[in-house]
Amino acid sequence: MTTVSFDEFERSMWSGRAEIFSDSVATLCAHTAPDLLDAAAGDGDLSGLRLLDVGAGSGTVARLADARGARVTGVDAEPSMVELAAKRVPGAEFRQAILPVLPFPDATFDATVANFVINHVGDPVAAAAEMRRVTRPGGRVAVTIWPHPKPVAQRLWDEIFDAAGAVRPADMPRVDPAVDFARDQAGLAGLLSGAGLIEASAVEVCWTLRIHADQWWAGPAAGIGLTGLILTSQDEATVTRIRREFTQRTAPYRGPDGVLAVPTAAVLARGTVPS
Fold it and tell me: Is residue 234 part of a domain?
């Protein structure tokens, strides 16, 4: 598979799904937003900072940055995400853009962030280099990814699929090993260093995902992400088994109100553009 095929494959899983993403998977992604912005700002002060939010999704990071006084520009590959984010964060500017090409001159921004975006691009090396290019000398680039080995929340879906006998699609493209990286702290910091950033470092961020069980089911059931692709590619009998396994295996994490409390984690890295 080519890199373009990988990128098109990834984009197909989010096409037209901004609202359901916002009501489901976005809850999982939101926790890292404050830490991501702190990493980009350095001293924590975003007032007047020209900030680019790459892969803005439904606007979670952009809204927080806007509230903290940044001058926010957001981009996303998916038009429905751009439309929804613009409605939710009227103080920011949003446009469609697809990594590894960002439609801005060199050194346009004081800082650039990407919350769980590097996971979804076919050429992570080129994507990181492009984020460095549009960030001014002395500015920072900060990114998050889902780690491997998977944390409990993500691993739980694999256990559910395995127990239900779900078959993974055989034709899913993979990132070319020549441009891939280890999905851990050293790997992500190395990706930023390889893109020309200095003082690159990474940390693990751990938290407990709190989301109603129905919301956590709704995103994949609507085809959101790789989990959704696997779920929606099964026959009716297998989907029934998956739902049964979902109910049983999330029970230890479910409170009386139906809200799950599931441990998860991410890797957060930052680097500085050389002066």
Answer: no
